[in-house]
Amino acid sequence: MKRPSVRDDLKSMEGYHSPQVEVDVRLNTNEAPFPPPPEFERAFLEEVKKVDWNRYPDRLAWALREDLAELHQVEPDQVFVANGSNEVLQTICLTFGGQGRTALTFEPTYAMYGQIARVTQCRVAEAQRDETFRVPLDGLEKAIEVEKPDLMFLCSPNNPTGTPESSEVIETALKLVPGVVVVDEAYGQFADFTALDMLGSQDTSDSLIVTRTFSKTWSMAGVRLGYCVASPWMFDEFQKVVLPYHLDSVKQIAGRVALRFQEQMEQRVAYISDQRRRVSEGMARLGLEVWPSQANFVLFRTTLCGLPGNEVWKRMIDRSVLVRNCSGWPGLTDCLRVTLGTEQENTIFLEALEEALQ
In angstroms, rounded to a whole number, what is the distance separating the alpha carbons of residues 89 and 91? Predict the structure, then answer.
């Protein structure tokens, strides 16, 4: 039987993979350590009872967009909602990218920027971060001058390094980039700066897109719900490429109900931030190189302990603890990334790490 040929540009690509291994403590995918509060589940189930299952969902997700607009003090027509922030990124690439257009990233960063851009047939240009994993202004300006990107992705705080972008970097990008500047704030609630504050500027708001997700601080990774806030004119353009009725009724309800519990969300953020300090200090005492983080994870390097990252990762699995192995990524030799879990999970992680380093 003859097998149909896939697109030529896909033949050399690989999908995005995060190992799913059966372990006692899983700290590799930046999930929240706790579910939403019990009150969320009760309220959600009550609302789901009202769903007209035989009817399509609200195609524009208007009620959810109104609630998100109220949360961020913007207008509903500035909010676009999709199945996780990855679908938001895909919609942006389909709208502003495509064949003959360039997407610019600063490596190392979230791998899905390049993955989605290539799948949507963008040319991907990769500039480098400095030794502290920040985007240097001179490197930013040079990359923009050379590549003239139609899309540029900035992750703040950056995944997998945890470093936030400065307002100066984002403002410079908005002035120089001929296309759109996407600031991905999947971990934005953990940071001390948000690009959302720039959306009111007359000079920058037409090209700025800020993405957020419910997966992290809202403890809803299983729902797959994300959104972006941008200039109002973009929403109609997104509707040209997104599938009709792409956001189901149940997902819209889950997002609306979650927003009722902002105080509990902020309490979880404070708890995780406290655990981040504890875990970072614990790893530093073990002699590891640890990078300051403003996210719900911490990047560390094993070189100073005389062991390669791959070996430490394997030893951690032997102790039933799974972290993210970044040691094969460009610029991250011997680096591992640990998601902050519960206090007990973090204790188990630190104890297993100490044993693995011996």
Answer: 5
Residues 212 and 274 in one domain: no
Q: Which two tokens stand for residue 330?
A: 């460009």
254 and 272 in a single domain? The answer is no
- The answer to whether 322 and 27 have CB atoms below 8 angstroms apart is yes
Residue 1 within a domain: no
User: Domain end: 230, 245, 260, which one?
Assistant: 260
Query: Do 162 and 197 belong together in one domain?
Result: yes
Supply the pLDDT for residue 19.
67
Listed in order, strand segments (DSSP E) in the chain are 25-27, 79-82, 102-107, 123-128, 151-155, 180-184, 208-213, 226-230, 289-290, 297-301, 321-325, 335-339
Instruction: Note the pLDDT of residue 90.
Output: 98
pLDDT per position as a tens digit, 199-221: 976 566 699 999 999 999 999 99
The 8-class DSSP code of residue 152 comes to: E
| 3 state DSSP class of 143 | helix
Written as one letter, the residue type at 8 is D
- Whether residue 262 contacts residue 132, with contact meaning beta carbons closer than 8 Å, is answered with no
Higher pLDDT, 19 or 274: 274
Q: What is the domain count for the chain?
A: 2
**Exposure b/e, 176-207, CB count within 10 A at least 16 = b:** bbebbbbbbbbbbbbbebbbbebbeeeebbeb
Q: How many Å apart are CA 49 and CA 47, to the nearest integer?
A: 5
**Per-residue pLDDT tens for 275-312?**
999 999 999 999 999 999 999 999 999 999 999 999 99
pTM (2 d.p.): 0.95
Beta strands 297-301 and 289-290, pairing class:
antiparallel
Q: Which residues span the domain enclosing 129? A: 38-260
What CATH number does the domain containing 197 carry?
Answer: 3.40.640.10
Rounded Cα–Cα distance for residues 355 and 312 (Å): 10
Same domain, 174 and 310: no
Beta bridge mates, 298: 338
C-alpha span between 160 and 327 (Å, rounded) = 11
pLDDT at 265 over 70: yes
As beta bridge partners, residue 106 has 127
Same domain for 240 and 111: yes
